Amino acid sequence: MTQAAESIVEVKEAVKRFPAPEGGVVTALDSISLKVQQGQFVTLLGPSGCGKTTLLRTISGFEDLDSGAVLIGGESVLGVPPYRRPVNTVFQNYALFPHLSVSGNVVYGLEVAGIKKTERDHRLKEALERVGLSGFERRKPAQLSGGQQQRVALARAIINQPKLLLLDEPLSALDRNLRQSMQLELKSLQHDLGICFLFVTHDQEEALTMSDQVVVLNQGRIEQIGPPDLLYHKPATRFVAEFIGDSAIFSGRIQNTEASPVLVTEDGLGIPVGRGPKPGDHATLIIRPENLSLAPPNPDDSVSILDAVLEQSVFRGATHQYVCVLPNGTSISATPTGADDEAFSRVSPGDSVQLAFRRNIPHLIIESQ
Fold this sequence. Notes:
Layout: E1 7-19, E2 25-37, E3 41-45, H1 52-60, E4 67-72, E5 75-76, E6 87-90, H2 102-112, H3 117-130, H4 146-158, E7 164-168, H5 176-193, E8 196-201, H6 204-210, E9 213-218, E10 221-226, H7 228-233, H8 238-243, E11 248-255, E12 262-265, E13 270-272, E14 282-287, E15 293-294, E16 303-315, E17 320-325, E18 331-334, H9 338-345, E19 352-358, E20 363-368
Parallel strand pairs: 3-8, 3-9, 6-7, 7-8
Antiparallel strand pairs: 1-2, 1-4, 4-5, 9-10, 11-12, 11-14, 12-13, 14-20, 15-19, 16-17, 16-19, 17-18
């Protein structure tokens, strides 16, 4: 087995509960099991309260599990304090010492560990070069921008040469442009270091941009694990489809027709879905906005048609968003490009339109029969 395939972190049946202010308990982690491979950029993604930060804190040692196990490098770390675990954490607020210089903050851990000055100086120079802060050694945190403080926190984390770097929403305090720039820098840094980054965020764009694997959590459980493109194009559950990207979602029963199986919603909307599902299946259809266009003059059997009324057109910079309303009152958005966008531009709000999509493109989740 190659090193890239080895698990650097393994979580087994992790359970963590907290007392609720109103009484009772809140289950933050509900029997979660997870393996994280060496050399990957893995993101824990989910809404507030889903358990992602609690999971990170149990790996780092700042929270103890009620039951279950955590292994790092194949060895159990239950009961091992944070400072003795082969990990480093970059926090949301950076946690820099305001009275220390950049150099003092970065080498602090090495000084506590008793590393010789020559080795500290060598590692300091290397760490600051990696994060682009050479020449900033004497500055205090108050003399740095938010992005520069972020880099100091990163340098302090990587100077200890950890097996695993944990990052708890470290970009959330940055403005949009700087945050996008730091996303690419973090991914590049992870690639150069060759160690595993375990990153926590509620921002789907960050997760899709940076990750090799995304772990989607909801109410203390894992909904789906996979590479970003798989989660986007083939979400395993309705929650994943709603949380990652924009989409129109329709649930109902499959009915058979001579032409094609049709998904019929509770309010009677029928959508041809192509081959695959069986009559009686309960299913959820996910249609992404970029997969919708205006129907061609003579559509073939591979195209499904939805009658709608254009409600409004919204300019979004690189694209237009066309918000339409279906006969059952459901809003559905299209973000076409090229010739399809030009066709939409000739339609006015209030006009009737026919929306089209290829039946083999939208994702269908078969839930039960």
